[in-house]
Amino acid sequence: MINHFFTNSKTKNFMRTRSLFFSIAAFLCCSFTLQAQVNVNFGLKGGANFSTFIGSEALTEETLIAPHLGALAQITIGEDNEGFLSYALQPEIVYSMQGAKIDNQKTVLSYVNIPIMIQRYVASSGFYIESGPQVGFLVSAKAKADGISADIKSELKPVDFALNVGLGYKFGSGFGINARYNIGLTSIDKNGSDVKNATISAGLFYVLGSGGE
What we know:
Keywords: Signal. This protein has one domain (2-207): Porin. 8% of the residues lie in helices and 58% in strands. It is built from one helix and nine strands, in the order H-E-E-E-E-E-E-E-E-E. The protein has an eight-stranded antiparallel β-barrel with strand order 1-2-3-4-5-7-8-9. It is elongated and about 55 Å long.
């Protein structure tokens, strides 16, 4: 069934993309050595994914809507002169259902994603922008059509590398809203077809112990 979405192509250079991912992660983790006390607060997040496949050989027509749910740690790495949060490093672990639809068929992929986000807050407003790399581990993969479900996990790569960009707003209570675009950097097809994940996620989060920032 996966061939409804993929067509054949030569294998892409996986190792080069993996090196790029780790280079980005190392840069983000080492580029923000600001003079501020480092505080760590933990939280939860959840919401909806609007996902599809992209690439020259991705034959998709509709967006798949599915949930995501996870945990986060917000690490303060910068504050302004008035003590408001300026920069934060936010690693997460998120269970994410992704995939795509075409006609009456759909492919549903479940990942455990680990993004590492750098967040830049706009003064004391609560608004922020963010970006960062992500690695995802494939948990399950199903192709479904006409009430029949087939396991296609063996046809897909077990690890997916991606890049995130997003924005959000965090209230003083620790609650917040977030929207993020996730674009795959590597093909997910073991046969080398040019098919990548692309997901827009939107949802809510709560950071414990962060009220009053």
